[in-house]
Specification:
mainly alpha, 0% strand, 71% helix
Length: 268
């Protein structure tokens, strides 16, 4: 792809151009299993932390939480713009099928840096839960289950550059840009209208439905030899997205339909 695409004016920046995705992919192939260590430490920290905080006063941490959420919001917004622009380029030039089966997302001049930044970001994002534990907020199953499985699957998939990754990452960046912006505003004491929280959860449900659809299409088109992936990866992604779809739908019902319980629970 040229530095500038005539249809979308897709310009790559120097740091994106200089990023060597081959080194990144090689590192992930050798080290992706370290994600299990991160998840083990994470589980021990949050449940040990809950036990530690049981007899202690909750911490306020409002200012650090504003900075934390704002930082992740800005990162997600930039990531959504860059990966979204590249996804539009693929859709515009090659069509929907190619956007699903595309591997250039991992090595494209604009998207390659943001693909690696995405999978790496799933480790520091575990820090979300630290605020919940130290502030003694309710920690729901969906929250920590989602953090653990996204980290494991992202690292597991990046090393193989599987089809569908472009959609998975772009959608996640987009939803996270909305979600972390919401958390930053709430932490800053801004009263965010209830419908905004409903929109975020609705977008998460739509993301999971689309993720499940993309996984199915990768399997279908893999049979034709077009989509580079592996059956075990498709099975894991399908199970993951199906479980998310059910859990987020249940969360939506419990939080917004069952009763006046819209507390803005941190769910992703």
């Amino acid at each position: 792809m040229n530095e500038t695409d005539h249809h979308l004016h897709l310009v790559e920046y120097d740091f994106e151009r200089r990023f060597d995705e081959r080194v990144a992919i090689e590192w992930m192939q050798e080290n992706w299993s370290k994600s299990f260590v991160f998840c083990g430490l994470y589980a021990a920290a949050i449940f040990g932390g809950q036990h530690f905080m049981r007899e202690r006063q909750k911490l306020d941490l409002r200012k650090p939480l504003v900075l934390w959420s704002l930082g992740l919001a800005l990162f997600s917004i930039i990531g959504a713009v860059r990966t979204g622009w590249y996804m539009l380029h693929v859709l515009n030039t090659s069509g929907f099928k190619q956007s699903v089966c595309d591997q250039s997302f991992y090595s494209g001049p604009v998207s390659k840096f943001w693909a690696y930044a995405f999978v790496l970001s799933k480790a520091p994002e575990l820090g979300d839960t630290v605020f919940i534990v130290l502030r003694k907020q309710r920690l729901i199953f969906l929250h920590w289950y989602h953090h653990i499985t996204v980290l494991l699957y992202s690292w597991y998939s990046y090393k193989d550059r599987v089809a569908g990754g472009g959609w998975f990452m772009t959608m996640n960046y987009l939803v996270h840009s909305l979600m972390y912006s919401y958390y930053a505003l709430r932490a800053a004491g801004v009263r965010v209208p209830r419908p905004y929280a409903m929109i975020i959860t609705t977008s998460q449900i739509a993301q999971m439905a689309m993720g499940l659809t993309v996984s199915g299409l990768v399997y279908l088109w893999m049979q034709e030899g077009h989509c580079p992936s592996y059956l075990d990866n498709i099975v894991w992604s399908s199970l993951m997205y199906l479980s998310y779809l059910l859990l987020f739908s249940s969360f939506f019902y419990q939080a917004y339909l069952k009763g006046p319980q819209a507390k803005g629970h941190k769910s992703e």
